Amino acid sequence: MHDLIIRNCFIVDGSGSPGFHGDIAIKDGRIARIGDAAGLKALDEVDAGGLCVSPGFIDIHSHSDLTLMRNPAGESKLYQGVTTEVVGNCGLTAFPISDAHRRSSLGFIDVPGLDWTWTCSEEYVGLYSKLKPAVNVAQLMGHGGIRAAVLGYGNVKADKAGLRRMQDMVQRHFDIGMFGLSTGLGYAPDFYSDEDELCALAEVVASNDGCFSFHVRGERATLFKAVAEAIDVGRRTGAEIEISHLKCGHVSNIGRMHELLKMIEEARDEGVRVNFDQYPYTAGNAYLGLVFPPWTHEGGVDGLLKRLGDAGTRKLIKTQMLAGFEGWYSFLTGMEGKLFISSAPDELKDFCGKSFEQVAEGMGTDIPEACCRLMEVSYGKVEMLMFQQLEEELELAMRSDFGIVGSDGFAMDKGKRINKGRPHPRSFGTFARILGLYVREKGILSLEKAIKKMTSMPAGKMRLRGRGLLKEGYVADIVIFDGQRIKDKATYDDPFEYAEGIKQVYLEGKPAFDWNGQGKIICNGSYLLKGKK
Fold this sequence. Notes:
Elements: E1 2-11, E2 20-27, E3 30-35, E4 42-47, E5 52-55, E6 57-59, H1 67-70, H2 75-78, E7 82-87, H3 100-104, H4 121-130, E8 136-142, H5 143-151, H6 160-176, E9 180-184, H7 195-207, E10 211-215, H8 223-237, E11 240-243, H9 257-270, E12 274-278, E13 283-287, H10 300-308, H11 311-323, E14 339-343, H12 356-363, H13 367-378, E15 383-387, H14 391-399, E16 403-405, H15 426-441, H16 447-454, H17 456-461, E17 478-481, E18 502-507, E19 510-511, E20 513-514, E21 520-521, E22 527-528
Parallel strand pairs: 1-4, 1-5, 6-7, 7-8, 8-9, 8-22, 9-10, 10-11, 11-12, 12-16
Antiparallel strand pairs: 1-2, 2-3, 5-17, 13-15, 14-15, 17-18, 18-19, 20-21
């Protein structure tokens, strides 16, 4: 006797192979039969009505670390068919230290009203392991947290002893059960590291068969050099490399996506194990601190605010915010009319949705000074939308065999309990947007290739054993969706809209939605630990 049989499915198994009609039988949380289940019996049976049935989607680039702690239901992702969130990206993790200094530097992923009750990584993992989220959670460790724990927030080079301590800390996190390491080389204190430091840490990643996820050092004028650095770390160490949210943003890179993809393809031909992830929007979302020069972030938000309090230093900062300097390119130059405030504390909420030009005009000043004031009033808790890609280049990258779908967003809720202002719509729409707009409407991807980019590819990259495929013996994380109706509804003006077209989601063969309870979410997810059952 099986636990569940899903009959009359159009099965897209995640391998990239053509879809086919059949049934799926589930027992003890795993797929027991796939194909023809005629004659089999189960405690429960579901007729899929010929709809698409695929592995649950795996968001390889999520920042839901703290939003799921605040709201375990994670509605915005579950309504897209996501069953696993890979968190801890861009070097941004609330461990191994959780002091006020660290929290102030994590404004991008932090959640108002959440008590940080942990003091170390083990306590953080213990707390999460007791949580029952609606989706599975696979954890990366953040380079920023590790570097801060060992070297602080200063612009210092790691000596041999410091490298050894960081390597030991990375190994300890693998021993806990984490799936890899991430770095955010656009953020402090990560960007104070050099390539030798990254390679030292990558060696530990490689020896543990983990993944090293890179928010590269520069996504504007230094983009190609930054991607080359990530590739070189993989070349030197043999580590699995994932380049985060690949894009050809800024005027300096427009029209060069084919060159970037060629770099990655040639590296793979050499044997470098490099992939990239991508969200299906031309706008990105980031912390306002990116517009400030790297040296201003030494000492965290407190250090930046202290520098802004000195008239002479403030003048220098504003000059560099526009002109840049050797090794750092201004974020503001060339982005006129393309930067908008997305989220901000209550005292600044009237600026949400406004362009930087409108904000500056409202303050009666110029853009650099307006950014300084926003930073001071918010204590760094302002986010921005950045319209920096061309649609045709986004689609070119999407066609690549080496790209994986990732939201770079958060598990949130329509009731707006998590984020204020107007967050990026990718948190509510990414996976449905791929299947609705880029598969059904535009034909940029076949259904089978799109599903592969959402399932077996991220599972393989992150070593999520037994997930990502509809295959006998694999975990029964499954989504049923209507391929003719699935679509994203979230927009930049109204981002709090759930996707449509998902009919049911299963985690280990158990339903995630109780439709008799008018769509009530049943939290069946787990905090996954690498190498542990």
